[in-house]
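User: quick one, fold this
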Amino acid sequence: MSEALTAEESIVDDLRVLIVDDHDLFRSGLRNLLEEQGVLIVGEAAAGQEALRIVRDVAPDVVVMDLNMPGMGGVEATRHISAIAPLTRVLMLTISDEDTDVIDAILAGACGYLLKDSSIQVLMDGIRAAAMGESLISPAIAAKVLQRVRASSTQPEIESTIRAELSEREIEVLKLIANGKDNGMIASELHISPKTVKNHISNILMKLQIDNRIQAAVYAVRSGIV
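Assistant:
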């Protein structure tokens, strides 16, 4: 247990975070809270365009991004960041829990979606998850994203890529991810350890060149295999 905690602490110590929000007081307060947790704040931005300039200059590990801002908003900024800095992860932190806002942000490439009334511990969990390429998104939100993807046009040519790149076991895991199962549920259903599930997911993301599990789920749904 102590080794796991040490590893997790080292992740926090090494994290370089950019805060993007158009409210000065909120940015200042959030900066203080995160610095108390050992996070290195490498910049602040009040709008999307400014955020892009900072991302290009310093390539932060995680961007904590507001949704609604003057000029370029959070969704458009996230889309640009995903294109110009694929190793920089975006975590949305906003007051909006509207389905459309959530879905648009995730499909733009956000690794997670949290509300501003979240505790600092939940926010730290979200930042850690984003830094490791994982997603902190509730199953209900994930289900809404996939429902929207199912309603849009599928791309059956993706199925051949999935079947060519992944093993049968990895395809099983991918299908369960797309059905909203977390690692514990997948481990139970396939009678394997959670660590093995995590290894499978890492392999799936690497082989399909995808950033996180919610994007893997979207990919699977678009292919028609689930």
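User: anything notable?
Assistant: Residues 75 and 105 are 5 Å apart (CA to CA).
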